[in-house]
Amino acid sequence: MLLSALLCSSIALSSASPLRTAVDNQVTFGLGAPESSIKVPSGFNIDLESKRLVQFSDEEEPVLVSELEKIVAKAAGRKFFDITDHPESAFSPVRVFKHNYGSPNATELVKPVLKTLSTDGPKANLEKFTSFRTRYYRSETGKQSQQWLKSKISETTDKFASSKLQTLISISEFPHSWGQNSIILRIKGSDPSAGTVIISAHQDSTNMWPFLPAPGADDDGSGTVTILEAYRALIAADFTPVHDVEFHWYSAEEGGLLGSQAVAKHYHDHSANIKAQIQFDMTAWVQRGSREEVGIITDFVDPDLTSYVTKLVETYLSIPPAHTKCGYACSDHASWTKYGYPSAFSIESSFETTNHNIHSANDRIDYSSEFSFDHALEFSKLAVAFAIELGGWQN
Asked: According to the model, what pLDDT value does residue 36 have?
């Protein structure tokens, strides 16, 4: 049976030498193949026989598959939206707001904040974050890791934000039925009607077979701590924006962009004005022998915002941009694009030289010297620049 063969292959690969699961040549997946009887381990809230509505490209009709078939599709390298909760999104593409971004012009405000960024916090935070056996969105440890992350964000706020600035900051959970919630942090701007600026990463992790260990150091523990460090530096500098500036840590990216879809739909349903959204997914890997660079994704994004992000990299970072593609539904920026909002996506390098160890037990900090906190810090610089340049800073 094709399903069983793919499943066994996925389990074997997950404990083998470095593998590449995020590839462009997506493997053909046999939907509707017979399912084996598989016992779900304790600590996981998942029904492998439940039906999910999944879309594998914007040129294909959505298909109904089992949860197990969805897992195997993921292991085979296929990218998709799980639109079970929002089926209307497959048929109603929309455009909401368009913005003119111009060129970066706040260097005197940005550069002093960049000097305060450090690798110390990201190292300590990622060591803890990867200590959870898995951050799979339907697991008990996935919920525990989310609760720890929220407490760390609150602790950072209490420690580094002035009492006055804290009155402008809210930290909340965006609830999801599967247990691991997304986290939304808002710094209230002086003119909220001017449009919201969103900086995001995804907090969950997965192995090719989700019941196996998934430390998720790079995917996407790196993005999670990257934007947390940017937030720390901003509030330590008493950043008081004109626009609302939000930091999002999404749940269930690995399940088909479930968390970000729910959040983006909520904002769309409430007619939110989103000026710009940028995703940070995998920020810490520099393949040996390759040029150190910032990957700027060019497909399924807003071209004007992407051009602006490229200018930010050229203005504020010490390494060059590299335009690259990652395919359909490859990270949470795609949810914002789906609902008509301007989105961008930065990744650790050109797509072909990204970390080969994702979705395995080898996605660890200590697996290779190619994992670099100094490289991740460049992305914290980008997040800081994005917040200040687009969010504005009150006089």
From this structure: 57
Question: How many domains, in total, are found in the chain?
Answer: 2
H helices present in 237-395, as ranges = 258-269, 303-316, 333-338, 373-391
Residue 120 tokens read as: 């110390």
Say whether 202 is catalytic: yes
Give me the domain span that covers residue 59.
2-90
- Active-site option among 86, 202, 248, 356: 202
Last residue of a domain, one of 55, 90, 125: 90
Type of residue numbered 209: W
Domain boundary residue, one of 35, 58, 90: 90
The answer to whether residue 219 is catalytic is yes
Is 329 a member of any domain?
yes
For 147-173, the pLDDT digits (tens) are: 999 999 999 999 999 999 999 999 999
Name the nearest CA neighbour of 122 among 362, 321, 375, 347: 375
> Of residues 82, 219, 244, 348, which has the active-site annotation?
219
Pairing of the two strands 321-324 and 169-174: unpaired
Alpha-carbon distance of 260 to 241, in angstroms, equals: 24
88 as an active site residue: the answer is no
Is residue 254 part of the annotated active site? The answer reads yes
pTM confidence score: 0.91
